[in-house]
């Protein structure tokens, strides 16, 4: 993330416990990335968002708390660390963060979601689609994108965070969290 982005990330800076954040987020950037995307797509209170591949739902809960959205957190898998369905972690985090009334965990993934067309004002997805592309190839990636497009309202906004190579040094505070996961 650039110096410019760091300066914008004021809400995320109020949550400095990176050990906790990176124990709960598998994607790079954690809450900083969530804030960057939320600002970029103009997230607003009262809107309904779908988080595709929410993992333990930390970013979802943070978006619900900081931006006042109602969020559907989708994740189809079990947690590789403890074998519990991700949706259990999401529900637990939602209670812990005081947003259980606005974060709904749904055990589903793209492209097989249970939602009607044009259900959401916003879609949010970090480091899930690239993983799907790695596992299912280009066709799986396109199907997943197509489903997100289908369930977004016309004029809805999609914030997508995917890994990329930046020719810039890794910020010092993030350096301890740089890992190579099994899907790299
Ligand atoms: C690399 S993690 C990213 C998690 C989170 N968005 C983050 O940035 O920390 C990918 C997540 O996608 C979930 N997942 C796997 N297949 C999926 C699918 N078809 N649709 C949605 N999510 C999926 C996995 O369970 C995992 O939690």
Number of strands: 5
Radius of gyration: 16 Å
The CATH class is identified as: Alpha Beta
CATH architecture: 3-Layer(aba) Sandwich
Looking at the chains present, what oligomeric state does this protein adopt? single chain
Task: Indicate the mean pLDDT.
Answer: 90
**What would the CATH topology be?**
Rossmann fold
The biggest sheet, with number of strands, parallel, antiparallel or mixed sense and barrel status, is: 5 strands, parallel
H/I helix tally = 7
Range of strand content: 15-25%
Shape: globular
SSE class: alpha/beta
Folded structure, characterized:
- It is a single chain.
- This protein has helices at residues 3-8, 10-13, 18-24, 30-41, 58-67, 86-96, 129-151, and strands at 48-52, 70-74, 103-106, 120-126, 152-161.
- With 184 residues, the protein is of the alpha/beta class.
- The protein has a single domain (3-164), classed as Vaccinia Virus protein VP39 (Rossmann fold), CATH 3.40.50.
- Helix 4 (30-41) crosses helix 5.
- Helices cover 40% and strands 17% of the residues.
- Strands 3-2-1-4-5 form a five-stranded parallel β-sheet, with helices on both faces.
- The model is unreliable at 1-7 (pLDDT under 50).
- Residues 25-27, 52-55, 74-77, 86, 109-110, 126-128, 131-132 line the site of S-adenosylmethionine.
